[in-house]
């Protein structure tokens, strides 16, 4: 169902890899709510070709950009503003990648070069995107930027590995840049801390299947789906949440504030 919440708004969606991606689902919902979109992903992801299906569905151009490359990001903003014929009203940063997890290194033995790459792709990239927009004056007043994060930034989830540090940095950049961009142009910046969700990035975490069941049983409402995350992002891009900024917003069915549940105690008894 459409409420026309984003009618006339123009947004850039980073990170739609395939139809399981949270960015993919968010692009579909933003389109349904009346937004004009530009889709972007790393050149290597574009070569998979999946994104073209989404581009057709939401009638959006696809512009490649590696988020660790400032020239790519600049070009993305230039081409997007040309396409829209003006400034940008919202951005979804839905990007994460851990090189050490991929290469099977545990947290206590990480390779620091790979760690730099992980932090750059998964966290500093938000600074790079915001800084480029700042330098080019690419965001309209009251524009909204949302980045996706995970509760491992606040509490230890051992198999989340170096991504926990990346998410802490991402949330800190959200607060710091949120201050500067809010003061300058009333731009709001938030992170959404999402339940575990079956996607390419999500499934890369060791023990994901057991963990997703645990989170389901620990959440009064159950795990939030990718579709519901998309709905939440739409509200944050809309004018109905204009004074929400510099926040980390849990979208997790209540997981973050639940100590224990009978369902989890029951699981322990079964063992
Ligand atoms: N799936 C989960 O359980 C879960 C939970 C909480 C938060 N998140 C976060 O949601 C976001 C989206 O992940 P997802 O679960 O939809 O998985 P996904 O694998 O579909 O998306 C990750 C995206 O990051 C992109 N990316 C990687 N390196 C890049 C680079 N150098 N330049 C540009 N893009 C690059 C990938 O191409 C991919 O599209 C991530 O930030 C992830 O950490 C996911």
Brief synopsis:
This protein has 271 residues and is an alpha/beta fold. It contains 11 helices and 6 strands.
Characterization of this structure:
The chain is an alpha/beta fold and 271 residues long. It has a single domain, classed as Rossmann fold, CATH 3.40.50.720. Helices cover 46% and strands 14% of the residues. The chain contains eleven helices and six strands. The protein has a six-stranded parallel beta sheet, with helices on both faces. Helix 1 links the parallel strand 1 and strand 2. The longest helix is centred in the middle third of the chain and has 25 residues. The model has no long low-confidence stretch (mean pLDDT 96). The site of nicotinamide-adenine-dinucleotide has 26 residues, from helix 1, strand 4 and helix 8.
């Amino acid at each position: 169902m459409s409420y026309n919440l984003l009618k006339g708004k123009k947004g850039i969606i980073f990170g739609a890899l395939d139809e399981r991606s949270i960015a993919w689902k968010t692009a579909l919902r933003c389109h349904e709510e009346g937004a004009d979109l530009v889709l972007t992903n790393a050149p290597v992801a574009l070569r998979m070709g999946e994104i073209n299906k989404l581009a057709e569905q939401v009638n959006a151009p696809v512009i490649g950009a590696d988020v660790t490359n400032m020239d790519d990001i600049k070009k993305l903003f230039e081409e997007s503003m040309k396409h829209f014929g003006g400034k940008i009203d919202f951005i979804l940063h839905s990007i994460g990648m851990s090189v050490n997890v991929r290469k099977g290194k545990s947290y206590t033995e990480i390779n620091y070069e790979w760690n730099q790459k992980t932090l750059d792709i998964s966290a500093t990239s938000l600074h790079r995107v915001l800084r480029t927009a700042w330098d080019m004056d690419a965001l309209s007043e009251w524009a909204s930027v949302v980045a996706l994060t995970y509760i491992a930034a606040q509490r230890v989830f051992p198999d989340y590995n170096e991504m926990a540090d990346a998410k802490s940095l991402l949330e800190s950049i959200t607060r710091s840049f949120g201050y500067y961009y809010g003061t300058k142009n009333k731009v709001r910046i938030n992170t959404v801390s999402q339940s575990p969700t079956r996607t390419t990035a999500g499934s890369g975490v060791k023990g994901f299947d057991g963990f997703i069941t645990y989170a389901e049983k620990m959440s009064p409402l159950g795990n939030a789906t990718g579709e519901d995350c998309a709905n939440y992002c739409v509200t944050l891009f809309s004018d109905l949440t204009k004074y929400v900024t510099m926040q980390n917003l849990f979208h997790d069915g209540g997981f973050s504030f639940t100590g224990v549940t009978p369902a989890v105690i029951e699981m322990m008894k079964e063992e």
